[in-house]
Amino acid sequence: MTNPRPRSGGDEHTVGTDFHRTLDDGRVECTVCPRACRLREGQRGLCFVRAREGEQIVLTSYGRSSGFCIDPIEKKPLHHFLPGTPVLSFGTAGCNLGCRFCQNWDISKSRETDTLASAASPETIAAEAARRGCRSIAFTYNDPTVFLEYAADCAEAARELGLKTVAVSAGYINPAPRAELYAHMDAANIDLKAFTEGFYEKIAFASLTAVLDTLRYLVHETDVWTEITTLLIPGHNDSDAEIAAECEWIAEHLGPDVPLHFTAFHPDFKMRDVPPTPPSTLKRARAIAVGAGLRYVYTGNIRDPAGQTTHCQGCGEALVVRDRYRIDRYALSDSGQCAFCGVKLPGVYEGQAGDWGPRRQPIRLATPS
Q1: What are φ and ψ of residue 308, in 5° steps?
Q2: Do 152 and 31 fall into the same domain?
Q3: pTM for the complete prediction?
Q4: Domain assignment of residue 107, yes or no
Q5: Do 94 and 111 reside in the same domain of the chain?
Q6: Do 268 and 335 reside in the same domain of the chain?
Q7: N or C: which end of the chain has fewer CB within 10 A?
Q8: pLDDT at 186 over 90
Q9: Pairing, β 310-311 against β 297-300
Q10: Is-contact 14 49, C-beta < 8 A?
């Protein structure tokens, strides 16, 4: 994917894909995700950014973003991937899920092309990330599944400059496009929204089974470093039984070394009547996960140094002590071995931790005309 993609209709922001098929009734079906939107001429899929033009489905948001920002890598969240380093983060618009609690709804649910105010080529994005000292680029804010061609091209441009790439995704994607997208990624955080089909069907308008398939694929069939996040929503996915079932599944099917992040919900979008997640819920969930045999379990969106500290599974020492996005202690070798007993900590480590800290730096970035 290092060569420019074929463009359709002379629109510099529209890119053809192979992820579609023509049906007997003349409609064209998008095959990127299990939603399988079947479109007539001029129609868009539920994600809004994939549309039918002629006999193909095109990505209408290619080369345009809802904005760029340099974040700490821990904000993705990734705790075992280049700790302390800055990551250039961006998204586009639209999403292939319909989560009623979406915390980025102004981007992911946008139906206005004005949201895509920033334009940049993959090469420009990669060059800017390198110039600003970022170690990676993250496709986030909305799901890279729906803009996978743009994400893959950016990843190739980043790789040429020695940068790594991160997908922050809900994991709701079909096998062929999944293989295409993640062939270009170095790390992923998959948002496991709950552990019941009922929640996915009624609140996320998707399928748990498809997401679990993505997790198995990433952990067992790729070299993509993978972490998981579950946003705990009071009264919806925070029961002891559901948390235990999720953690037991992870331990059995993915293994105990896959990091799991429990994060706090705040009222937003169409669930403003639900209260924020109490810190006690996150701490309870973490205890359940540790009891199920998971070795690296974290809390997020609250201040909880104990729940954000990484311990060595060999000697028990605190190896990475975090206070939100600040690293207060780092006791790992350049390649990730415990400084006390030498046991390798699972993850991706290249040198000592960075010192980016909690800063969040919006940037303006555009392709020169």
Answers
A1: -120, 10
A2: no
A3: 0.93
A4: yes
A5: yes
A6: no
A7: C
A8: yes
A9: unpaired
A10: no
